[in-house]
Every structure is written in C-alpha cells, then in structure tokens.
Amino acid sequence: MTQAPSLLQERDDMPPPVAARPARVTRPRNCTYAPGDWEILSRYWFPVARAEDIGTAPVQSRLLDVKLVVYRTTSGISVARDLCPHRGVPLSMGWVEGDDLVCPYHGLRFAADGRCVKIPAQPNVVPSDRFRATTLPMVERYGLVWTCLDPDNALADIPDFPEFGASDFQAIVCPPVSIQAAPGRQVEGFIDVAHFAWIHHEAFADRENSVVPLYQTRQTDYGFRSIYISDVSNFPKPLQHLEPKGFIWRRTFDVYPPYIAFLTVDFPNDGVLRIMNIATPVSARETMLYVPLVRNFDRTGSVEDVYAFNAQIFAEDQAIVEAQCPEDLPLELEEEAHFAADRSSVSYRKALRALGLTC
Questions:
Q1: 9 belongs to a structural domain
Q2: Angstrom distance (rounded) from CA 171 to CA 299
Q3: In the chain, N or C: fewer CB atoms in 10 Å?
C-alpha cells in the first residue's frame, strides 16, 4: 500500500519550490491594465511606503493591482505579497514577533526571506518551500520603501537624487497622497506650467500673470528636460515680500518615464529647491503620490509649514486631476488639443508611447 505524501513534503508532480523561481509576481486577476501595460510597468521600481510610516505593525500597500505587505523587523524592512501561501489570508492582518511575520489564521511564521519557519499545528516538522511567502526586493532610498515586481527584467534603476542626504541640504519627505486618477495624468499635471495661474493662484501664482513664455524641451538619456524661465514667484503668497525686485525664476523639469519627475527651482541668493514627484501606480486609475524634496535655504525652518504648503498644492492639483476626462491619459496626440505651452505634456505622452504603453 502506497503511503499518501505529507502536505509538508514535496511530491514528484508538484511545481518546483518557490525559492527556485525568480523573485517576480505575475499579472493579477481582475487586472485594471490594458494587455501589455502591466508587464511593462512591472519592470520598473516604485515606492510602496514612506519608511517612517513602517513601525511594528505590518502595513498593506498595493502596486499595479498587487497587494503587498510592508513590515519592519530588527533586520530592517521587508516587502512581500500580502498573501499567506497556506490559505490565502492577507499577512498584513498579522503581526511581527522578533524577526518573523505571523499569519493571523493559523499562526504560521515567516522569516524575512519568505521561509516558513514554524507551523504551530505541527511544530516538530520543518516546513517545505511550498510554504514560502513570495518576497520582493526592497530598497530604502530618499525616505521611501521601493520595490519592483519583475526585478530580473528591470528596465531602469531608481533615479539618482544626490542632494537628498547631502550635508548642505535639508531633506523632507512629505506625507503620501492617495489620488483617484491615472498616474500619467498626475505626472502630466506636475510638469504643466500653464496651470500655475489658474489652479495655484491662492498658493503662489497670479491669474493676472498667466502668459507662459516659450521654453525649451530636449530629449535626454533618461527621458527629457524642460527649462521654464518666468517671473512667476515660487514663494508662498505670505512670503513673497522676500523676493528681490525683478527676480527671474528658473524651473527645470527632469522627467523619467513612466511616472517620475524632478522639479528644480532656483531661488534668490543661490537657493535651490528640488522636488521628486513619484506617481506610484496603485492601479490603472489609482495613484499614490510620494514627494521627497530638499532645500539649501531655511534649513531650520518648520517642516510642518512645508507639509502644509505642499498639501495645499497637492489638493489643488488633485481636484483637477480626479475630474479629468477621459480618465486615462490619451497618448495619441490628436485625441486632445494642444497649444505651445504644452510642449512638456506632448513630450511626456510621446515618451510613454515609446515605452510601449497605451495610456
């Protein structure tokens, strides 16, 4: 009589152990992305949490419709699929004990590399790799937790932000913002200079100063750069008396498709503000906005004031982006009208098409 194999042992007809597979995640069920788009985007790195928000309790996040769990142990931060391989319970419902993540359903314990190290119902059995959780690579950079769903085929590295952590700059990581809109719409809004006078007139701009001077856009090895020079102040309205008379503002946008853009603003007295705008694609029409920034002036000023000013800007943009129609960013240029000040938007749409994306 043949003895039935234990559920804790490998059978010959079982798939290979999870540990032998590449560290990647396949297209999820009920995916919101057009065919092909998910596979392209899964090869890029995106932040899935702000590092300071990861404490002793596991946190659920989502990237490209895939649910993830982000948690901290004594050895650092880990990222995994939010799915227990035993019965499919979200691991984010569990807790951390020592260096192990504990599933709340049956108490299975998982090490940071995904290995199941204990099954309380059968404590004397060493769990096989069938019980390994799907872990993902994690990079902590610029105050954010980054991961990639298909790291073996990654198309680009995380962009460099050398000023972040430099001794002559103050680094600030704004609280993330959840936006019910496509990430491409958010990024395009960030690099749009013609909307300053109309959307941000209460924060820093002026509707009586709405003319956009012609500006330059050029291709780069990472995407493209636009340089916009004007007399539109970047000081908040209550501080604009500090601006020297006749000062001309220089804003440089460096765009890293698909969903990252830097804005460098040259302030008076050799001041520099550099903002990194990252639109993490939660789903095709959901975005989590992460914004680390640095400045080499007012370095002892209130961080809460920076949070408040940027929250005002984000809210003003969010109201517009969430109302746009069509909800997806049209990449066929004839689908929407364009004027000269849209040259950055046009370059951005062309760049997304060049990646093979459809929206």
A1: no
A2: 9
A3: N
250-271 tens-digit pLDDT? 999 999 999 999 999 999 999 9
CATH of the domain at 130: 2.102.10.10
Number of domains the chain contains: 2
In-domain check, residue 146: yes
Domain that holds residue 294: 170-354
**CB-CB contact of 140 with 131 (8 Å):** no
263 and 174 in one domain?
yes
Residue 249 sits in a domain whose CATH number is 3.90.380.10
Mean pLDDT of 6-33: 57
Residues 138-196: tens digit of each pLDDT: 999 999 999 999 999 999 999 999 999 999 999 999 999 999 999 999 999 999 999 99
Indicate whether 163 belongs to any domain. Answer: no
Q: Cα torsion for 130, 147, 188, 193, to the nearest 10°?
A: 170
pTM higher than 0.85 for the full model?
Answer: yes
- Residue 189: CB atoms within 10 Å: 21
Contact, 69 vs 60, CB < 8 A?
yes
Q: Return d(Cα 125, Cα 128) in angstroms, integer.
A: 9
